[in-house]
Design a protein that fits this description.
There is one protein chain. The protein has about 350 residues and is α/β, with parallel strands linked by helices. It folds into two domains: about 1-245 and about 325-340, P-loop containing nucleotide triphosphate hydrolases (Rossmann fold); about 250-315, Lrp/AsnC effector binding domain/regulation of amino acid metabolism (RAM) domain (Alpha-Beta Plaits, 2-Layer Sandwich), CATH 3.30.70. The protein contains twelve helices and 14 strands. The chain has helices at about 20-30, 60-70, 90-95, 115-125, 130-140, 155-170, 185-205, 215-220, 240-245, 260-270, 295-305, 320-325, and strands spanning about 1-15, 30-45, 50-55, 75-80, 95-100, 175-180, 205-210, 225-230, 230-240, 250-255, 275-280, 285-290, 310-315, 335-340. It is globular. It starts with a strand and ends in an 8-residue tail after the last strand. Adenosine-5'-triphosphate binds near residues 35 and 344. One of its GO terms (molecular function) is ATP binding. It is a peripheral membrane protein.
Length: about 350
């Protein structure tokens, strides 16, 4: 189980004045500004859940993951991963977790992937049977042998990410934190990574915390979502519940006996003000309605009264649309400050 209680992380930034004179002035008179990257976040992630940690750029996801993995200490509040405060007991925490940060490596830069894995095997004291089973899985799904004996620093981003993902699971951790794990992967490998994590989860009950801007990753892997906006949790629950917050819903139907969809669309838009009707695939008509003005029963009742519906279904709201609305309008101007207080250490 993972718990965050009123978790806060602030960074102190030194304000930089524009131009050369400004840079010189910064050397002598420093003005500071505090950025609250994580603003009193509280949540509980049950053991065995596959949770998407979602938020717009700069929402505080990576900072939270860094505290959960012990890389950063909270300014206030606390978090617990399997009963351990990660930043106080980094080693004990590290034994039970696997981590992928798209931007950082846990591998040895000058060593090949097999050499890095041999070191990890020793570090984590991985039993032979577990090591062999996991390598076989990575051969099957990630084609890990193809990475050969090339030093990690010479691998492409996609090749390195395959190795990072494998390394994060090598010791059968109880919890994995994956921050943008599919960066640089092609479609086939993305699918393989999704299969891999789902297989490991099914066999071992691994708790998965995933941050990703790739909606397909979230949909393929996660059953629940934590959505953060400007450092605060704005939704916690199943992905299904998140989709239910959509402000627009849809119905798609096939209308028998009316070959010309134009008048049908016009009749719907006249009869249900605020609703839009458009042509969908196979000559069907799609009706999009605002969820705060109409219930699905009202819309369906209207359609059944007037048209001969051959086929009718309600497509799931689009997760991307839901997130776009949550993120919308909250973009901040990029900071002109320089970090002055972060204590980020090595992974
Ligand atoms: N070491 C640091 N020093 C100063 N500010 C930081 C530092 N790390 C993060 N921040 C600031 O904290 C805020 C949250 O950053 P964070 O990286 O956690 O966001 P994120 O949700 O992971 O974003 P993204 O989706 O772009 O990866 C941002 O405003 C960022 O500029």
């Amino acid at each position: 189980m993972i718990v965050a209680e009123h978790l806060v992380k602030e960074f102190r930034l030194t304000e930089r004045k524009p131009g050369l004179a400004g840079s010189l002035a910064t050397l002598f008179t420093r003005e500071h500004r505090v950025v609250r990257a994580v603003d009193g976040v509280s949540f509980t992630i049950p053991a065995g859940a596959k949770t998407a940690y979602i938020g717009a750029n700069g929402a505080g996801k990576s900072t939270t993951i860094k505290m959960l993995t012990g890389i950063m200490t909270p300014t206030s509040g606390r978090c617990l991963v399997r009963g351990i405060e990660p930043y106080r007991h980094r080693q004990a925490n590290a034994r039970g977790i696997g981590v992928v940060f798209g931007q950082r490596s846990q591998l040895w830069w000058d060593l090949s992937v097999p050499d890095s894995f041999r070191i990890l095997r020793r570090v984590y004291d991985i039993p032979d049977a577990v090591y062999r089973r996991n390598l076989a899985l990575y051969r099957e799904l990630l084609d890990i042998d193809a990475l050969g004996t090339t030093p990690v620093r010479q691998l492409s981003l996609g090749q390195r990410m395959r190795a990072e993902i494998a390394a994060s699971l090598l010791h059968d951790p109880a919890v994995v934190f994956w921050d943008e794990p599919t960066i640089g992967l092609d479609m086939v490998l993305k699918d393989a990574v999704r299969q891999l994590v789902n297989r490991v989860h099914a066999e071992l009950g691994t708790t998965v915390v995933l941050t990703s801007h790739d909606i397909a990753d979230i949909a393929a892997i996660c059953d629940s979502a934590l959505v953060v906006d400007r450092g605060r949790v704005v939704h916690q629950g199943s992905i299904r519940d998140l989709l239910r917050t959509a402000d627009r819903r849809s119905v798609v139907f096939d209308h028998r006996g009316r070959p010309d969809p134009g008048p049908v669309r016009a009749e719907i838009e006249r009869g249900l003000p605020g609703v839009s009707a458009s042509s969908a695939e196979d000559g069907r008509i799609r009706v999009d309605y605002p969820a705060d003005r109409f219930t699905s029963r009202q819309v369906l009742g209207f359609l059944l009264d007037r048209f001969d519906l051959a086929d009718c279904y309600a497509p799931e709201p689009d997760l991307e649309d839901v997130l776009r609305r949550i993120y919308g309008g909250h973009r901040e101007a990029p900071s002109t400050g320089v970090p002055g207080g972060g204590e980020e250490g090595a992974a």
